[in-house]
Amino acid sequence: MAEERFAVPVRDGNRVLVLSTVAFTVLFAVWLMLGVLGIPIKQEFGLDKIELTWLTSIAILSGSLLRLPFGIAADRFGGRIVMTGLLLFSALPCWLLTVSRSYPALLASAVLFGIAGNSFSVGIAWNATWTSRERQGFALGTFGAGNVGASLTKLIGPALMVAVPAAGLWGGLIPGGWRFIPALYAVLVLATAGAVWLWSPRPDRRPGAGRSLASTCRPLSELRIWRFGLYYIVVFGAYVALSLWLPNYYTSVYRLGLGTASLLTALFIFPASLLRPLGGWLSDRYGARAVTYAVFIGMLAASIPLAAPRWFHVGPVGFFVLVEILGVGMGIGKASVYKYIPEYFPHNVGVVGGLVGTLGALGGFLLPLSFGYLEAATGRPESCFWAMLLLIAASLTWMHRVVLGLKRHRVGSPLPAPMPAGELTG
Fold first, then answer.
1. Using an 8 Å Cβ cutoff, are 403 and 289 in contact?
2. What is the pLDDT of residues 236-245, one digit of tens each?
3. Contact criterion met (CB below 8 Å) for 375 and 383
4. pLDDT digits (tens, 9 = 90+) for 175-207
5. What CA–CA distance (Å, rounded) separates 257 from 262?
6. Which of 268, 304, 407, 426 has its CA 20 to 30 A from that of 190?
7. Mean pLDDT of the chain
C-alpha cells in the first residue's frame, strides 16, 4: 500500500488537498456558526446562559461522535464520495435553522448541521492516501488550516445581519437578520459539493476496501492513541471551545460590541488555524515531541495569568495578547499531534485519526459546558481558564513521563528493538 501511494502524481495529491481544504473550511464554518449567531438567537428566544451553552455544545457533540465511523468510511469507500455526501447532507439542516421558531427546533437543527464537523476525519484519511510520507506533516497541516472556517461567520456575520433586513428579501423568500447566514451556507455547501465531485481525481484511493471491520479497528486498543487524543483535546477541543466562548466573554466581561468581539475572536482563530501548515513543517523537520513540548509549555505559561487576571492585572489588551499566544500554540500543536498518526499507523490513518479527532472534538463539546457550569457556580468568568490550565498541565505531565520512561527503557536495553522515527516523541 505504501509503495502505491508513492506512485501517485503530485498534481492529483494537490487537487485532493485543495478541494478537501475548501470543503473543510466551509463545513467548519457551518459547524461553529452558533459562536456568533448564538448571541442574537439568545436575544430573540430569551435563552439563559445554560440554554445557550447547550445549544452551542450540542452541535459540537454531533460533530464529534461520528468522526470514527466517518474516518473508516473514507478509508473504505474513498474520501471523494464521503466528502461529497457530507456536503450535500449539510445543506438541509442549514436551511432548517433559518425556519426554526422554537428552542427544540433550534436544538434539532444544531444536532443535524453539527454533523458537518465530522468532515475533519474524512479529509485527513483522504489526504493521507494521496500524499507521500515525507510531505504528510505539511499536507495534513495545510488541510487542517481549514479550521479558519470558524472565523468566517465572525467576519461576515455581524455585517450581513445588519445589511439584510430582518424581514428578508424578495418578500421573505430569502431570510433576513441572523437567519440569512445559515441560508447562505446552504448554498455554499451545495456549490462546494459540486466542485469536489467534478474536480477530484478518479478513481479514488480506498486503502480500507476489502478489510474486515475488526482488522480496521484493531489499533484502537493501543493506549498511545488515547494519549494522542488527550493532546488533541488541548490543541483542538479547547480551540473549538474558545471559538464559541470568546465572543460572549468579550461582550460580557469587557463590554465590547458584537462586531468588535467577533473581530477579536477571529484574530484568535487565524493563528489557531493558519499556523497548522507551519506546525506540520516543523514536525516534519524536528519531530513531534519537540514541537508539542514547546506548544504545551507556551500554552501553560499563557493560561496562568488568564486563570488569575486580578492577580496579574490582565486588562483587555493583555487578555487579547495571552489568548493570541494560546491560538499560536493551538495552530502549531494541531499539526504536531496529527503528525504522529501516519508515522505509527500508516495504513490506519482513517480509523486512528477518526478516534483522535473524536476525542478532541468531544473536548470541544465538554469544555464549553464546563465553562458554563463553572461560571454559574463561582460567578467568575475566568473560571473557564481554570479548566484549561488543569488540562494543559495534565497533558504535559503525561507526555513528559512517557518520554522519560521510553528513554530509560532505551538506555537499559543492550540491543533495543528498532523504533519508528517518532518513537521517542511522547
1. yes
2. 999 989 988 8
3. yes
4. 778 899 999 999 999 999 999 999 999 899 888
5. 9
6. 268
7. 85
| Domains, in order of start, for the chain | 2-201+216-413 (1.20.1250.20)
- Looking at beta carbons, which pairs linking 186-190 to residues 24 or more positions away fall under 8 Å? 186/91, 186/92, 186/94, 186/95, 186/98, 187/91, 188/26, 189/26, 189/27, 189/30, 189/87, 189/88, 189/90, 189/91, 189/94, 189/116, 190/87, 190/88, 190/91
Q: Which three cell numbers stand for residue 208?
A: 480500507
Of 35, 155, 74, nearest in space to 357 by CA = 74
Distances (CA, A) of 400 to 291, 297, 425, 426: 13, 11, 10, 7
CA dist list (Å): 119 to 4, 166, 251, 319: 25, 31, 31, 32
Round to whole Å and give the CA distance between 258 and 43.
Answer: 13
SS (H, E, C) 159-218: HHHHHCCCCCECCCCECCHHHHHHHHHHHHHHHHHHHHHHHCCCCCCCCCCCCCHHHHHH
Can you give the pLDDT at residue 165?
67
CA distances 421 to 175, 307, 343, Å, are 54, 37, 7
